[in-house]
Amino acid sequence: MIIALSCGRKGSKGFSNKNITKLGLHPMMAYPIIAARHCSLIDKVYFSSDCEGQIITAILYGADKTYKRPDHLATDSALLEDVYVWLFNKVRINMPIEFVVLLMSNAPGINSKMIEEMILILRENKEADSICTVSKYLEYSPYRMRKIKDEWLVNWEDCSDEITCDRNSGEACYIYDCSAAIVRPYCLDYIHEGTLPQKWLGKKILPYNKYRDIPCLDIDSSWQTKQMESWLEKYW
Q1: Buried b (16+ CB within 10 A) or exposed e, 75-107
Q2: Residue 122: in which H helix or E strand, if any?
Q3: What are the sequence ranges of the domains in the chain?
Q4: What is the CATH number of domain 2-135+176-235?
Q5: Each residue of 19-54: pLDDT tens digit?
Q6: Using CA atoms, how far apart are residues 78 and 46, in angstroms rounded to an integer?
Q7: Given 21, 45, 136, 207, which residue has the most CB atoms within 10 angstroms?
């Protein structure tokens, strides 16, 4: 059995009611639910939130079952990894679960074809703990990033002589863009053994970067919606 878990929070950082804000044709949070619902390899889709409006939206867009997120997991300090583990333990059933598809309400850059391809790749690679969507952001490479130290602006990472002002001169830089992660159940059962900062990915993580000529992200600010609208117009 393959299940999908999607989570949202009423007071999530960013602009007001972002998860139920319309983005293109649908509320932002609907895209990952629709993608999971239309993937033939997924058996059940579950959603959790402390927000009644988000729960109603999840039901309207096809979530099989919804759960009220407990108060202690609905604060600014609550970690998403704890929410995933809590929800997984709520829905796990007396049947073997092959994979868990982890989605985020503010990360709409996913469709059913991508999820299916990711599942098949992970199924083929028995050594991998997980597979996740990644986007290339050369302009944000560690070689180009800086930090403030003792009031001075200094390099975040030592640069070799081969690094220039050309953003293509450094090693390619990828970020888990949070659109989707498919993990084996033991990644959640033993989450404290996973790799920081997203411990639910386990240790051996496969990258999936197809359909990413327009990079994706989990949206926290209203100006980021324009980037995702461009992606949705091309790939949804």
Answers
A1: eeebebbebbbbbbeebeeeeebbbbbbbbbbb
A2: helix 112-124
A3: 2-135+176-235, 138-172
A4: 3.90.550.10
A5: 999 999 999 999 999 999 999 999 999 999 999 999
A6: 20
A7: 45
